[in-house]
Amino acid sequence: MYRSIQPEIALRQRVGKCFMAAPRRYDEELRAIGQSLEAKGVTGFELYNARAGYFIKDLREHTPSFHSTIRNWLRGHRDSDNEFVTYGFELGDVEELSKRGRARRSKQGQLIQFSDLSNILRTIGAYLDSQEAELVELHKRPISITLVYRDKSRHEHREERPVSSFYSFFLELYEKRNPS
Questions:
Q1: How far is the C-alpha of 159 from the C-alpha of 148, rounded, in Å?
Q2: What mean pLDDT do residues 155-178 have?
Q3: 116 vs 33, 67, 98, 121, CA distance in Å?
Q4: In 3D, which of 78, 57, 56, 59 has the Cα closest to residue 69?
Q5: What pTM value is reported for the model?
Q6: Contact status, residue 128 vs residue 47, Cβ threshold 8 Å
Q7: Is 28 strand, coil or helix?
Q8: Bigger pLDDT: 20 or 71?
Q9: Which of 2, 35, 155, 171 has the maximum number of C-beta atoms within 10 A of its C-beta?
């Protein structure tokens, strides 16, 4: 008996589309991470995008405690007096942070500061979203950003820009969210 496989292929394609992962919203994810980093006092960092979430290296040097220094010295580890702190954010953690952030969101019409880390990161995330790009890594320094991302063709791009270069894009986003 001959039967057509076209309906089965069409069904598999429809079902496959139903279970596709939702596209990442970097504006929301980076805003939530920015709020968490602000609470920790982090200003300079390197952020790396991984399949399961984000890995962040705080660039402030942290001096270990006296006891830790003595213990390391006795063990023969005399090379470094400073350590870097790292943070990991799984995607589920980021979603939870985002929900909490939306619940605490400031009043409508209130002036928003571009200089807040969460707003800088939201703006960069919206920039990536507008490019339909995939974030690879982001390095935040006091006045500069290094952004590495892949476009839809999977070509990798690297942009080194002053933080202030995102300000006009921030204003456009603000006007879209708060029309007069």
A1: 6
A2: 92
A3: 12, 36, 16, 9
A4: 78
A5: 0.73
A6: no
A7: helix
A8: 71
A9: 35
Q: Average pLDDT in the 96-115 region? A: 72
Residue with tokens 């984000």: 54
Where do the structural domains in the chain lie, given as residue ranges? 26-177
Residue with tokens 């942290």: 62
Confidence (pLDDT) at 126: 95
Instruction: Count other C-beta atoms under 10 Å from residue 32's C-beta.
Output: 25
Is residue 102's pLDDT more than 80?
Answer: no
One-character DSSP codes across 40-79? HT--SEEEEEETTEEEEEE-S-BPPPHHHHHHHHHTT--S
Three-state SS sequence of 134-163: EEEEEEECCCEEEEEEECCCCCEEEEEEEH
**Cα–Cα distance, 126 to 96 (Å, whole number):** 19
Q: CA–CA separation, 138 vs 146, rounded Å? A: 6
Q: At residue 10, does pLDDT exceed 70? A: no
CA dist., res. 34 & res. 120, Å (int): 8
Could you give the CA distance from residue 86 to residue 47 in angstroms, rounded to a whole number?
Answer: 10
